[in-house]
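Appendix C reproduces, verbatim, an entry submitted by the partner laboratory led by Prof. M.T., so that reviewers can inspect both the input and the predicted structure.
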Amino acid sequence: MPAMTAPAPRKAPRPRADALRNRERIVTAAREMFVEHGPDVPLDEIARRAGVGNATVYRNFPDRDALVREVVCSVMDRTVEAAELALAETGDAFAALERFVHAAADERISALCPMVSSTFDHNHPDLVASRESVERLVEEIMGRAKAAGQLRPDVGVGDLLIVVSQLSRPPAGTDCMRGDRFVHRHLQLFLDGLRAPARSVLPGEAVDIRELLDS
């Protein structure tokens, strides 16, 4: 009797292109609405902005915490990409830092601010990996500017990201798009204050990136 061969393991089906696009639209819409309205915005409003049905949102994200975590990870991953581009530049180290800060604001890093008090797991492996990548890369960008004598030495990665997040959020009670007009102007004012030599002594200690996400 011929030996029976075990059936080849079936590969997990790849998500359809339209399913991936729907997921990306949901995350993008959630990121925008979290910036505008905070993390408690109704999920059906997010679905409406994304142009998908409520069932599509819940099929991708079984609960609010899963969506919040995905938004935070997506913001941090896009921030990593901006940091990698800045590190690939040669020349003026502070100019590379400036370009990174403005790019991070455009990626809606301000979406992280409302998440600080959220209930999602801040120690989820995906989030930890993203956070460590951001910390390492931004520390390197800032380190190059400090080594060049262009960046004041008493600021940390958390200082930078917290201020960028705060300055790129629309003020309470204002239209988000109207607030966007002033983001880069105010960020440049902040960046000018980071230049060495420092003209004042900062109170407290440099902020670590963990303080941006840990409750």
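The domain at 71-213 is CATH 1.10.357 (Tetracycline Repressor; domain 2). Additional entries are available on request from the coordinating office.
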